[in-house]
Amino acid sequence: MKNQIHYFLTAVLFFTRIPCPKWVNHSPEILNKSSRYFSLVGILVGGISGLIFYLSNLIFSTEVALIISMISSVWTTGAFHEDGFADVCDGFGGGWTKERILTIMKDSRLGTFGVIGLISILALKFINLDELSEITTIPLVLIAGHAISRFIATILLYTHEYVRDIDSSKVKPTTQQMSTKSLLISAFFGILPLIFFNNPIVFLTLIPLFITYLYMGSFFKKWIGGQTGDCAGALQQVAEVVFYISLIVIWKFF
Predict the structure, then answer these.
(1) Residue 79: helix, strand or coil by DSSP?
(2) What angle in degrees, to the nearest 10, is found between the helix axes of 38-57 and 62-77?
(3) Fewest CB atoms less than 10 Å from the CB: which of 145, 193, 226, 244?
(4) Where are the domains positioned within the chain?
(5) Blockwise average pLDDT, block size 10, the chain, 254 residues
(6) In whole angstroms, how far apart are CA 167 and each of 51, 163, 211?
(7) pTM higher than 0.90, yes or no?
């Protein structure tokens, strides 16, 4: 149990700005094992974002509360996944060879494709969450969205080989393939929040989410031969938006 707590706190330390005890280290071995708790970290981040939305909505309009909650989630993670998404937009938008794509993705500067990508995906999140606020409980949606999207990202870590040199990588936990045990733990925490909708129809969202994983996974495989941490971050961002869109479609047509 102590080891599992260590793995979880390591995931919290690496993927958020939340302070952790000083004894929590981030050795390569522990970092890789911490991937099993990516989805649980998503529940934590979604819970913080959902709480901020609830409190803000007591004072402000739904739209303002949504923006504040989105800012809180970005602040909590240090824009970790958004940065990966922007890097992927720049890399695959401006590169035509594996080497060039990886070089651009390593560049800390933000390019045109990254800016457009971030604006687009943040706008999609806001618009869809605003529409969902008229249908269901936003805090639960945020918790589920952050958790399930991180589970989808861990599937990529499980199935695709890491393709960047370890020494030059910004995201070292993904340099080794996940174990089946870690994937199952991630799946448990990723799918768990769906139960609290008290409507089994929400599990239909897993279909478009899995299709999203298949498409983006094959895209990454085609161009760079596998995945990087940035690719996992990009998949998390896209999967989160796909989940919100899927909820809207389900409630409108089913």
Answers:
(1) coil
(2) 150
(3) 226
(4) 38-253
(5) 88 92 79 91 98 98 98 97 97 95 94 97 98 96 98 96 63 64 96 96 98 98 96 98 97 87
(6) 38, 12, 32
(7) yes
